[in-house]
TrEMBL record:
Coiled-coil intervals: none
Gene3D superfamilies documented for this protein: Dihydrodipicolinate Reductase, domain 2 (3.30.360.10), NAD(P)-binding Rossmann-like Domain (3.40.50.720)
Protein name: Oxidoreductase
Annotated source species: Dactylosporangium sucinum
InterPro entries listed in its UniProt record: Gfo/Idh/MocA-like_OxRdtase_N, Gfo/Idh/MocA_Oxidoreductases, GFO_IDH_MocA-like_dom, NAD(P)-bd_dom_sf
Residue ranges annotated for the Gfo/Idh/MocA-like oxidoreductase N-terminal domain, each copy included: 3-117
Residue ranges constituting the GFO/IDH/MocA-like oxidoreductase domain according to the UniProt record: 126-245
GO molecular function: nucleotide binding
Pfam families linked: GFO_IDH_MocA, GFO_IDH_MocA_C3
Signal peptide start and end residues: none
Amino acid sequence: MLVGVSGLGSIGLQHITAFAQVPGVRLVAFDPDPGRRAAAAAHPAVDRTTGEFGELLDAGPGALVIAGPDHVHPAQLRAAADRRLPLLVEKPVAATLDEARTAAAGVAATGTPALVGYVLRHRLVVQRTRAALAGGEIGEPVAVHVMLGAYGTIEAAVSRFATKEPDRLYRDYSHEWDYLRWCFGPIARAFAAARTVTSVPHVESPNCVDGLLEFASGLRATFHLDYLEPLGTRTVQVLGTGGTLLADFGRGTLEVRARAQGRDRAVRHELPEPPAGALARQAAHLVAVARGEAVPLVTLDDGVAALAAAEAVRSAATAEAWRDLPPLY
């Protein structure tokens, strides 16, 4: 199968490497920048590159990855859907929530299979965590806490962060909103407070956000996101009526402690893998969807919902309302 890749920045090149691991796949790649095209053309899985998006579609790919800047996503989604071309669009679906909703509705009207690049759903440890929760291994969840430290993202994608963009953190880590929805259901409300810490070499504004989500079920989750901590922390802890769960998505570990029939049980799952492993599974999944062998794991509706959560958190942080405590004596 020929797969098209639109956008050859850092994530586009990662997609090329991932698809090269899928048997029988060859690639055609588009980017308006000659230097990026040259970098992609050096990959042995790439048959050709082009500086015109129309030429990419005319090459006749059986599936398409849209990995360019957010603002180009809607037009490329429409063009792919017009040709009924199965596709994967990187998150966020669009630059604004209204554009994302419109684009998703347009694609849905054509019946075109479409995925969103929330690649965490393809990580083994995330899948095992969801299975543990769905299987009732810790009973009914009653509290959730998410921790994300991501200064390393800035160090790994210097060119993208060279462009100033306020409020980037909420969308860059909408991965968190997606896997929380996947595990716990629709998000109904959000509260957040943000600040900007200036003691790091590269300062995003804001670069530290803390808050609270409420799910439609009534379950609540606290969260912390930052572009400050350098080690790459990404954990979720869940307390339940029958035990506790601690998942480290970065390191690929899951610890489940539970009590059943008066006995305590502790199980530790070791599922480490490089990020490229999940990207390769996502690539194989797109190929399977394009062949009619699978349905999308992450739909455009999921992508719109994650963007809606990101916008709700951003809006809540902008309008945060604190209540002062009375003086203590």
